[in-house]
Amino acid sequence: MNSDENQKDLKGSPPPEGWPKDGVENKPDILTTIDDICIRRKKVSSLPANRNLRHRARSLRKSGNLPEIVFWQQVHKGKFYKIDFDRQRVIGSYIVDFYIKSLSLIIEIDGPSHNEKVEYDERREFYLRSLGLLVWKVSSTEVMMDIEQVMENLKNFIIKTYS
Hints:
By secondary structure, the protein is an alpha+beta fold. The protein has helices spanning 3-11, 54-63, 66-75, 118-130, 140-145, 147-162, and strands spanning 30-34, 37-40, 86-91, 94-100, 105-110, 134-139. It has a 4-stranded mixed sheet, with helices on both faces. Strands 1-2 form a two-stranded antiparallel sheet.
């Protein structure tokens, strides 16, 4: 029996034991599930990055401020629903606090220094949104006072936006 005849014989056969009856289900647009809700990917193909900022980003990662470290402890190594977070990521001529590539989501932890940088922050956010990115902000005070609520708010935002 040649290979073509073999294929014809297998077409009407049931799948081997343990295999799905309808074949292998491939859902590349599903990133994860949160509370049994599928979270869909939203990727932006490629982002510009000012290479001159790489060393500054690395330095910020190493030093880190306390609210960012507290948040990082909640999300690194897939702790938050197996979602991969980048810390101090260069996008264009900006360094964002956290970035989820698979969701095209930026997370910014704003401290008191942002009170004096309103125009700068608006320009920055406009630029990031023009690239197709979403920006979710939380205050450093919230992170330090109630990290559990911050994580719950982030979870709810992700469910609402990506399910």
